[in-house]
Write a structure and sequence with these properties.
- It is a single chain.
- The protein is α+β, with helices and mostly antiparallel strands and about 300 residues long.
- The protein contains six helices and 17 strands.
- The strands form four sheets. Strands 7, 8, 9, 10, 11, 12 and 13 form a seven-stranded mixed beta sheet that branches. Strands 6-14-3-16 form a four-stranded antiparallel beta sheet, with no helix packed on it.
- The longest helix is centred in the last third of the chain and has 16 residues.
């Protein structure tokens, strides 16, 4: 999890924290929550997973909010693997297959996974479009069916992936993008993607795969996608580093906290979020969550 906020508008679910394990269970209601996936790392980059609820403080546009939901359990995630299959990716596909299958092996066995490839257009998957992380053979078969060719419709693929991942059954959602960051054929623009992602509860992790002389490389786009959604960008320079990036992302999705609060304003505006760990009693800790959320509008409130 990550700086992340998952913005989750719960119109038919209320989150109840059990006294013993603080794990969320969901009952029918009309409560609206802002739900933030939060990751904490120490100065060595290791995940810190044993902090108590009282160590966290949430600020909404600079104002402290009471935490209504807190858990650090490993809960399943819906994850889309968004893979550049344009012609320039041909030599890199074997290491992509190795890295993404390692990602699945390191994931929660109940994670929902789908793949979405793109070149000149978005390549729809086969008949089986969603499976659990435990179905490693099915995932590898789908990856091996990808044929690198054509140009790069990155932005169109991300819009399609954001639509698809939101249809998943898990409350937490993420995309893992493997690409050089370039786009030369999409109808959508980077601003379209960033605006769509900003209104979403999806965290994007980007892995840049390119050579120094690659004319289509755009690491800045990969950075913007990750930072705008509370994810991370990785720029592996070797197959072994790609493998490390994939397993690191899988570990992060299993090592974070879920923190939620009930917003007090219904202004339809974008709210900046900051999550802090207090008090800082020693080693330096870094907290990552999404940078903000769009508040509901008063006009959408149900009678």
């Amino acid at each position: 999890m990550r700086p992340v906020i998952l913005t989750l508008l719960v119109t038919s679910l209320a989150v109840i924290i059990t006294a013993q394990d603080q794990s969320p269970s969901f009952l029918a209601s009309s409560t609206e929550l802002v739900v933030l996936p939060v990751v904490v790392v120490d100065k060595r980059g290791g995940f810190v997973t044993d902090l108590g609820r009282d160590r966290f403080v949430v600020y909404d546009n600079g104002r402290k909010r009471e935490i209504s939901l807190f858990t650090n359990e490993d809960t399943p995630v819906t994850v889309g693997l968004v893979i550049d299959s344009s012609g320039s990716m041909g030599p890199k596909m074997p290491e992509v297959i190795v890295g993404t299958t390692a990602f699945a092996r390191s994931s929660n066995p109940q994670d929902e996974l789908f793949t979405l490839a793109f070149n000149d257009s978005v390549v729809e998957p086969g008949s089986r479009s969603l499976f659990t992380a435990a179905d490693g053979a099915a995932l590898e078969s789908q990856l091996r069916s990808m044929v690198p060719q054509g140009r790069t419709a990155l932005y169109d693929a991300l819009v399609a992936s954001l639509d698809r991942v939101e249809q998943g059954g898990q409350a937490r959602k993420a995309l893992v993008l493997l690409s050089d960051g370039g786009d030369n054929v999409s109808r959508a623009t980077l601003n379209d993607v960033l605006a769509r992602a900003r209104r979403s509860n999806v965290t994007i992790f980007s892995i840049g795969l390119f050579d120094d002389g690659d004319p289509d490389r755009n690491p800045g786009v990969l950075k913007s996608l990750a930072e705008s959604t509370g994810g991370q960008r990785f720029l592996p320079r070797s197959p072994s580093l790609l493998l490390q990036a994939c397993t690191r992302i899988a570990r992060e999705l299993r090592s974070g906290y879920t923190i939620g609060f009930i917003p007090t304003e219904r202004d339809g505006a974008f709210h900046r979020i900051r999550v802090a760990v207090e008090p800082d009693t020693g080693g330096k800790l870094s907290v990552r969550t999404r940078p903000g959320y769009f508040a509901a509008s008063a006009s959408t409130e149900r009678p």
